[in-house]
Amino acid sequence: MGLACFAGGFFAARKYMEDYLKKNPPINEQMLRTMMVQMGQKPSEKKLHQMMAAMKANMDKK
Description:
Layout: H1 2-23, H2 29-38, H3 45-61
């Protein structure tokens, strides 16, 4: 009984966190722009959109 409750809770929490991270990604375009400037790159809109799309595609795979 206890093991079944633990497993059910684990999978429910996992699903909740996956949905939460899809709705509220841990990094946004402003953060990417700041990181690129700190690395010495000039952040173009095209490059920012490409990086965001790649991150979104990577999250959707999992």
